[in-house]
Write a structure and sequence with these properties.
By secondary structure, the chain is of the alpha/beta class. It has eleven helices and twelve strands. The strands form two sheets. Strands 6-7-8-3-9-10-12-11 form an eight-stranded mixed beta sheet, sandwiched between helices. A four-stranded antiparallel beta sheet has the order 2-1-4-5, covered by helices on one side. Strand 4 and strand 5 form a beta hairpin. The longest helix is centred in the middle third of the chain and has 15 residues. The two termini are 35 Å apart.
Length: 291
């Protein structure tokens, strides 16, 4: 469904754009129907830039992004099947309007011929699908609802369309632990309907909980990707091992993460050349375990 091939994004910076920064460098991966793929990396690794390019909010400098073999073309038809939900749900609502105005905007754009009774029932059904009581959330202002309720209403808005791909960019980072699990379980249920989800996060534990496959970014480049069980259970790249070693453990003292070990990937300064170390498990290091 979603395919990125050698996608690169370069930003011009400095006075009069005299310098450039490569935020995403030759990234390739895909997301299949009914699958959750975690895109994991520290802040500044290029995760959100990739999400914005998939949503058509930014154009790649080179490479291609396609959905069902069709290049990204921002517009009404594209957003009918591809939607994004972002980190801060409060920023997606106008505080002077009731929160369910986001549903009315969908109706005005995509379903202007829908009758009032028909549309009301569709909205209520979508709200129930995200485990909310329509009578408790519809007609409320954003400040009257929690972050988790607002986030789920944004997912309900997406469900009103013929959605096939959802870009979920750090959607649980502002939520408390109990609400976070509710939202993750909701995404897990949605994939059973055939929805493809790109789950952008810096939280390894949440990525491990949700995704079938994992893509690890460092400095805008893919350093490891494969089935989540393989990437987490048998990490091959030293950066992936560093990330896993830095995860706090309840019954162990906090320790500084060891520096990334030297490997051919770093020595050559390259950003590509992924090696298939085992079926479906790729790593950007030719030396693999000898690093």
């Amino acid at each position: 469904m979603l395919k990125l091939e050698n996608v690169t994004k370069v930003f011009k910076v400095g006075t009069l754009g005299g310098r450039s920064v490569t935020a995403v460098d030759a990234v390739s991966f895909d997301v299949r129907p009914g699958e959750v793929v975690s895109l994991i990396g520290e802040s500044g690794s290029g995760k959100s830039t990739i999400g914005r390019m998939i949503l058509g909010l930014s154009r790649p400098t080179s490479g291609s992004i396609t959905v069902d073999d069709v290049p990204v073309r921002p517009g009404k038809d594209y957003y009918r099947s591809v939607q994004g939900v972002f980190q801060d749900p409060f920023s997606c609502y106008n505080p002077v309007f009731k929160a369910d105005r986001v549903f009315r905007l969908i109706r005005e754009t995509y379903y202007p011929a829908a009758g009032e009774a028909e549309w009301t029932e569709r909205v209520r059904s979508a709200v129930r699908d995200v485990r909310l009581n329509p009578d408790e959330v519809l007609g409320k202002y954003p400040h009257q609802l929690s972050g988790g309720q607002l986030q789920r209403m944004l997912i309900a808005r997406a469900l009103l369309l013929d959605l096939r791909l959802l870009v979920a960019d750090e959607i649980t980072s502002m939520l408390d632990a109990s609400t976070r699990i509710d939202v993750l379980n909701l995404l897990a249920e949605l994939k059973l309907r055939g929805l493809g989800v790109l789950y952008v996060t810096h939280d390894l534990s949440l990525g491990n909980y949700l995704a079938e496959r994992t893509v690890v970014l460092r400095g805008g480049s893919v350093v490891e990707m494969g089935p989540t069980a393989d990437v987490f259970g048998d990490p091959l790249h030293p950066y992936t091992r560093q990330l896993l070693a830095a995860v706090p453990r309840l019954h162990a003292p906090w320790e500084d993460a060891a520096p990334v070990e030297s490997c051919l990937y770093h020595e050559r300064g390259a950003t590509g050349g992924l090696v298939e170390a085992e079926p479906g498990h790729f790593v950007a290091c030719a030396r693999l375990r000898d690093c």
